[in-house]
Amino acid sequence: MRRAFAVLALLSACAAPRSTPTSTGSSATPATRAAGDKELRYSVIVLGRLAGGASTVVHADGRRETDFAYTDNGRGPKIHARVKLSARGVMTSFDATGTETMGAVVDEHLAFDGDGDGDGDGARARWSSRAERGEKETSSAFYIPLASYPETLGLLVRALLASGGRVPLLPDGEARLERTSETTVTGSSGPRHLTSYAITGLDVLPTRVWMDDDGELFGQVDAWWSFVRAGYEGTVDGLVALQKELEEKREEDLAKQLARRPDALAFTHVRVFDADAKRWLTDQTVVVQAGKVASVRASATTKPPRTAEIIDGTGKSLLPGLWDMHAHLGPGDGELDIASGVTTARDLGNDPDTLDRMKARFDAGRALGPKVVRAGFIEGRGEKAAGSKVTAETEAEAVAAVAEFARRGYDQIKIYNSMKPELVPILAREAHAKGMRVSGHVPVHMRAEDVVRAGYDEIQHVNMLFLNFFVTKETDTRTTLRFSLVAENAPSLDLSSPRVKELVKLLVQKKTVIDPTLAVFEHMFTAREGEPSPGMKPVLHRLPVQVRRGALTGGLVVPEGKDGLYRQSYARAKELVKLLHTSGVPLVAGTDARAGLMLHRELETYVDAGLPVDDVLYIATLGAAKVTRRDKTTGSIKPGKEADLVLVAGDPHAHIEDIRNVVLTVRSGVVVPSRELYEAVGIGP
Predict the structure, then answer these.
(1) What are phi and psi of 143, to 5 degrees?
(2) % the chain with pLDDT above 70
(3) Is residue 367 part of a domain?
(4) Containing domain of residue 495, as a range?
(5) For the whole model, what pTM was predicted?
(6) Number of structural domains, the chain?
(7) Of 200, 228, 256, which residue is a domain's last?
(8) Is omega for the bond preceding 612 within 30 degrees of 0, making it cis?
(9) What is the tens place of the pLDDT at every residue in 621-645?
(10) To bridge 491 with a disulfide, which of 127, 136, 350, 568 should be the other Cys (CB 3.0-4.6 Å)?
């Protein structure tokens, strides 16, 4: 569920691995061709696996028709689009129909009144989709579709080049273009010379695009998800490496600009959260030296070291650094985490090579980012499997998969949806023998109680607990059914029933940790097309305009007459989380969404569910450190522990929303100002 609130899947593709795919070409159905037409074919590659693709017919009169479809993790979009362009390269008409990744209906249209040919005479653009509707006087603005239309970026580059590198956007904003590099690649149709461009104004980081010498999109690549010209799938790794050089240079420049390493640091007159006792200490002075907490004492009796940098904490609160226990780290996420007060993130699914490199850069200070707890992602194989670099279909493969992650020094493994049930206890046995924890989704044909008995130490997502009561051994939970079953049935589940009590008792007995990701289900069950996603409302005004539009696209498709039922299901999910907490089941707080910003919302949902505020703050700090067996060195503000701290304006005990007001973050003694870092990645105050 990575980046659940991004505007376009193509504009926010994530980070993890690949190998050369076993087949090439596109699974999309080509549009009808005529004499003089040109066809462009593309492939979607997810972690080295061909997942689908696109076929575009460029008609002799310039009209373009595209069919785009792919499937990953049991879901994906299927879209047909038609486009007309003006002389300046902006869209004068756009029509898209089909379905999006989670099944939402696509019905999006753009048209220009007036001449609409881009000759400067003026025109009025009118656009509509199920999420928004608008109009604007313009002859040169480029429309960014909400629908997953992969060629948007290529057409935008062409319009930017024709306009000198700057183009106004519809509905709002401005895109800017920078030429960044060039290379030559070889594929089934021979060598191709490519030019790389960076587009700013679409997302929090530059969006990188590769164009060929014909002025057509060659592709957009990422370590996790790539869209490239068919026959050139083997070029992805090399292009990703070139982009990585550019991105790492940006990260290093930002780290040099914003990170401070004072010899000593003193927070004076500050309110301190004592995570060990779940209490607040008033008017304290906290001294940091050599990257560790040196003392925590009353300000009235404490004199800071003479050489210390003094930070006045009056009216502010100092907490241990926050933990995001469900991350999938990609470009820019480290910076968003640090700006948001997250000093440790547990990555639950990534390319191990990418993740290891990212962790090393964060630890060395070459990039701003949290400490990283690594989980090795292991999946089965098949059409409905999620993309994964490490898979297992036999006992020997399961043993080898665990051994590989143990060799890399990973803390745990994460088992996913398509894993064969008979391999789960083998994976758990091997991981435990190597001192690693075991967590994951509940694989198809299993229930939550089965995986706990098979050796899981933790379960990801609260819907997996509900499914325990709604599935049979035959239910295929590898599709969106694992969400809709809960949305349809959760209100009817009696949380005081013997069956629920038995599951909760089992979780308590086995000390099984639950990672609810409540904010994800708030979005899925309560977000509606055309309305801001509830979890994004508090930060919507701070985001780039095109990202804001993603909050309007809705969550799950709600059948007619069931709006109230789906909202009740989210309320029931909160009730279950409260029941788990009061029963003594350990919880951890994770996002599985946009880094940093959404952790604040996750904590707010726990308070909304009825958990005491200080319990929630404990869960997000020392509680997480204990789960990952790092509580001896971090997780609370105690002398001798690493200085992982977050200073916020206000009082989160009285108002949990104050957790968003991050002033600065300290990661092992390195100080980073929040506002300046947010601004550097496009997030406003």
Answers:
(1) -80, 130
(2) 94
(3) no
(4) 474-611
(5) 0.90
(6) 2
(7) 256
(8) no
(9) 999 999 999 999 999 999 999 999 9
(10) 568
